[in-house]
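Newbie here. two chains, one complex. Structure please?
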Amino acid sequence: MTVLKNLLKIYMEKPEVAGVVLLILLAIVFQIRSDGVFLNTENIRGVMGILPEVGLVAIGVTILMICGEFDLSVGSVFALMPMSVAIMLNNGIPFWPAVLIGLVICAVIGFTNGLITLRFSIPSFITTLGMLFLARSLTVVISGGFPPLLPVDIPSAMFTQYVGPGGLFRMSFIWFLVIAMLAAGLMSLTNVGNWIRATGGFQEAAASMGIPVNRVKIGCFMLCSMLAGFAGLIQVLRLGSPLPSIGEGLELQAVAAAVIGGAALTGGIGTVTGAIVGALLIRVIDNGLVLSQVDANWFKFAVGGLLILAVIGNSWLRRTARRIKVES
Amino acid sequence: MAAPLVSLRGLHKWYSGVHALNDVSLDIMPGEVVGLVGDNGAGKSTLIKILSGVHGPDKGKIIFDGRPVRIRSPRDAMNLGIETIYQYNSMVPSMSISRNLFIGREPLKFAICGFGLLDQKRMREESVKAVADVDLHLRSPDALVGELSGGQRQGVAIARAMHFKSRLLVLDEPTNHLSVKETNKVIGFVQGLKAQNLTGIFISHNMHHVFQSCERIVAMARGEVVFDRPTAETSIDEVHGYL
């Protein structure tokens, strides 16, 4: 009983620990099943090369979920942002200004999502579902059907070059790490993080304490869109070409990552670390199944199963923890 | 005779055709604990919402501490020193006690344009002290408010109001949904206001609660103040007659 109690105490303080434990277990299983290929440098490099793209989107979606809203348009913004950057580059606009304008476009999309949701009291699920179609369509339209080529003289090495011991990580991983730390710091160390959590946790209480809840929410929508766009840019620089179809289904993967990492759809609960653990779990399952020579079509099945188990597990653990607290 | 802490003068409020407040004037003296009673829809809540900055009056004046003021937002009210404790609990269950205590008023280590790093050490220390000051014994400032009982939550809400040196404490039906034991605790808090020289308005459906803890009874009906007398000079039956 005391063991269970201590475990629950750890879980309540650090809900992402459960995900980390699962991650370690999966790593061991895949390592054995793949005859040691799973944890070799080449494979870790592969997983870590893709993680920043899903991870950044998951961070944005998680922060938005903590503040009580939802964004389904991230997958489309993920494609639209690099597409518009590519078109700007082909029209002679230098790289960094183009990226900046691209991020401004994302911010405008996030702002629109937030404004429509709040102004007309529409569930953000619906608003951003609309935006999913709008942004995807725009992406295809501005691409003109033919994905533009990226100029060769852009500093894509800033995002794609291998660095670290044995070239284990791409530069994109460093970007991801820095942004993740800033986001985690924002949520746990700043007053803005406190406002975001309060807004999602109990909006009336937050408003009655003088927190500008609408501005907080719109800020989170904008942050979420910008992170999604930036993640898309990283993927396009890795692939070398802005396909209009990238990021399809990514919105649901990001929500899955957030929920697996302990975020609640009802708002107020969740952590940035949890989102990263969730995203990493999804990547590891994807990769590990292939290496274990399981039919790759089982990937979605595994993610779906994990998602449902995570939600059931989280709510069960929360209830049990509360009951034990009440009893003691 | 000292000057009143708050004077309401001729307040009117309409909600889409409903005359919720009809020419309400009320003076509250410093150090006084006033019980505000009335049936549902009598205008109590509207009056409180105007005082706490949730709504503005359509007509009329508010004089606080001798100066006419306009309370446009909860923030304005808080800056004046008007703290409101709501019946539904003004606490976020998924956040810790120390974080709840400072929502919107976080002490910062440094800040740019109002955004900055939390001084979490100070938040913990001050919340431990604030909670102890209202005679509430909680294990840790890091406990989630969602783990507390309804009475304990109201206790923390009162601790918050006390901590920020509220000058006027508005308790909007704080005993709703509480057990008898917890209700007594909250009434104890209200009775303790007098000793701390705080001014309070205690709104309740329950006449007994109000008579136990307030020195003056104000009753409202149909958007008007219909009764206003010291508790010692009236009885529950008499007040009932006016509602």
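Moderator note: The interface with chain B takes residues 189-195, 197-198, 201-202, 204-211, 268-269, 322, 325-326 of chain A (CB under 8 Å). The mean pLDDT of chain A is 90. Thread marked as resolved.
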